[in-house]
Request: fold
Amino acid sequence: MKIYDEKTYLVQQNTSNLKTIEIKEKMIKHLLSKYFIKNMNDWAGIESDLIIADPPFGIKFSGKPTNYHRNAENVVDGYVEWGVSEYGKKIQELLECIKRNLKENGQALIFSGWNNSNIIQDILMRFKGLKLRSKMYWMYNFAPVCRKKPSHNVYEIFWITKNEKWTYNKRCNTEHCQIGEPNLTTLNFKRDYKVNMPKYPTRLPFKLLQCLIEHFSNKNDLIFDPLCGSGMVGVVSYILKRDFIIGDLNKNGKFVFKYLLDYYLKKNGLIQDTQENYIA
Reply:
């Protein structure tokens, strides 16, 4: 029976920790290779099981105003907003991108604020090759400071399929399904703020994406996001054992993606995000 002194034990622990860090660094490098700086119109033949897209708002948004309760210096530049006059055209292009890159039994989820959701719905109803199945609503805990009118804190999520078959799992592992009967009409998840980190003007919270990905895909499925911004869809997909491909026009999004990978893979960010992220 070997007897280790304290010094030997510490050396072994340090060696083990260094190997773990090395493995995580290699994984982060591999995951970064799945983020492409690419226009959504240039994607074709991805054959994804699930597409998640959070398109620009079309409201001259930059994500830097002080009423968004963030340090503007931490928000990266390069966010590509869509103009109001071109919004319908851009949504048409997004739907064409989804159609080109979705499996025959695949599906898509498109996020929208209230300002232009009517445009998305109108185009979807007339679009050939994709079918609007339903809408869900994400209620969250953030709204800009508004002194002259009520603030709006609800996102619409358009659920789209390509054909008559799709994946749906009744329960997920978030509190949304673990407490009471599952209800995908209204999703109540807090935003998970990251302090003193580079920020993208928009980013969906971990738990919300976990809920949707677990409901609408299976392990090893391919998740695609052509407007990925911070790359959060990629982060959550990897942690939930899905494959992913993501892209954006803004190279600074990939910079934020690297910080998020470091946060979740090396700094136990998932533990922080699982604590009190559900609104009862």
User: Anything to note?
Assistant: The radius of gyration is 20 Å. The helical segments are 6-32, 87-101, 117-126, 175-178, 206-216, 232-239, 251-266, 269-273. The longest helix spans residues 6-32. Strands lie at 35-37, 48-53, 102-112, 131-139, 154-161, 186-188, 222-225, 243-248.
